[in-house]
């Protein structure tokens, strides 16, 4: 069983809940049509899944996550939004689905957390119908950049990448998606990038507080200490750096994401 670096603390889900089809899956939207069957793997709290379901209805939409932790919230969102989605526990390495059963198989910020993203892509391809599309998007942490400079944020980035690598995951996944698809034998691809930018007081408060919380109270924080990569005092310094950044009138952060559409 792979170790998921972030875990599902509220400080983590607070960040995932902001995600929409527009801000996180824009590269996929032109491929969507009403009536397509869509599988969202590693769906987390399901905000993207529900948005995608609105676009492919009346197609069948399933959101799977290896952890049950975020799924009640995902179900409640779908019910509130009056959108038909089935949310269930499921593992991307062994999907409980027949061969050729979905038109669209989507995974947002999931492959970076896996020890074997190539096996995951092969399994996603297995359940995709011929002519269907696989859509994957992952950040590339190494090129995350911000203003103003702060040694505490340098420590955060270095620490995050070391904890993820200690889990045999790949924090700089964005640049690797194409190579993983090729290794899985998938060659009909379109690679793109888009970025998130957080620079308004509201965005800084939300993102900075999320990461300050994650630095002191999440699976990432527990793993950093358990692996001997940081002390609690160093994690406090990382949290303080995020709060300084959130309070900076000219604070700015950019995160680059790799995206890949794969025709099956
Ligand atoms: C960074 S979150 C992304 C959640 C959602 N896709 C989003 O963007 O808001 C990654 C999710 O992948 C899930 N995950 C990790 N390994 C998985 C696996 N082997 N199979 C299915 N889901 C997995 C985690 O539990 C977590 O909820």
Describe the structure.
With 264 residues, this protein is α/β, with parallel strands linked by helices. It is 40% helix and 22% strand. Strands 1, 2, 3, 4, 5, 6, 7 and 8 form an 8-stranded mixed sheet that branches. α6 crosses α10 and α8 runs antiparallel to α10. It is globular, with a radius of gyration of 18 Å. The two termini are 27 Å apart. The model has no long low-confidence stretch (mean pLDDT 97). The site of S-adenosylmethionine has 23 residues, from β2.
What's the short story on this structure?
The chain is an alpha/beta fold and 264 residues long.
Describe the SSE topology.
Elements: H1 10-16, H2 21-24, E1 38-41, H3 47-56, E2 61-65, H4 71-81, E3 86-89, E4 102-108, H5 117-126, E5 128-139, E6 145-147, H6 151-166, H7 177-183, E7 189-198, H8 201-216, H9 219-226, H10 232-247, E8 252-263
Parallel strand pairs: 1-2, 1-4, 2-3, 4-5
Antiparallel strand pairs: 5-8, 6-8, 7-8
Helix pairs in contact: 1-8, 6-10, 8-10
S-adenosylmethionine binds at residues 2, 4, 6, 16, 19, 24, 41-44, 48, 64-67, 70, 91-93, 108-110, 113.
């Amino acid at each position: 069983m792979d170790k998921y670096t972030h875990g599902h603390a509220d400080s983590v889900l607070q960040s995932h809940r902001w995600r929409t089809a527009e801000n996180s899956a824009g590269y996929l939207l032109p491929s969507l049509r009403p009536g397509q069957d869509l599988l969202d793997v590693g769906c987390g709290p399901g905000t993207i899944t529900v948005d995608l379901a609105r676009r492919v209805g009346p197609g069948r939409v399933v959101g799977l996550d290896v952890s049950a932790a975020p799924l009640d919230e995902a179900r409640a969102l779908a019910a509130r939004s009056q959108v038909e989605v089935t949310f269930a526990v499921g593992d991307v390495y062994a999907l409980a689905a027949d061969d050729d059963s979905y038109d669209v198989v989507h995974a947002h910020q999931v492959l970076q957390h896996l020890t074997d993203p190539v096996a995951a892509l092969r399994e996603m391809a297995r359940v995709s119908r011929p002519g269907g599309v696989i859509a994957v998007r992952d950040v590339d942490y190494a090129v995350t950049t911000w203003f103003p400079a702060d040694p505490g944020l340098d420590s955060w980035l270095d620490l995050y990448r070391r904890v993820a690598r200690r889990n045999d995951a790949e924090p700089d996944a964005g640049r690797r998606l194409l190579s993983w698809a090729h290794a899985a034998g998938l060659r009909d691809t379109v690679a793109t990038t888009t970025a998130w930018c957080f620079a308004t007081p509201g965005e800084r408060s939300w993102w900075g507080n999320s990461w300050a919380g994650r630095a002191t109270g999440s699976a990432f924080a527990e793993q950093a200490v358990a692996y001997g990569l940081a002390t609690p005092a160093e994690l406090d310094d990382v949290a303080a750096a995020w709060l300084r950044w959130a309070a900076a009138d000219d604070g700015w952060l950019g995160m680059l994401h790799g995206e890949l559409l794969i025709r099956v």
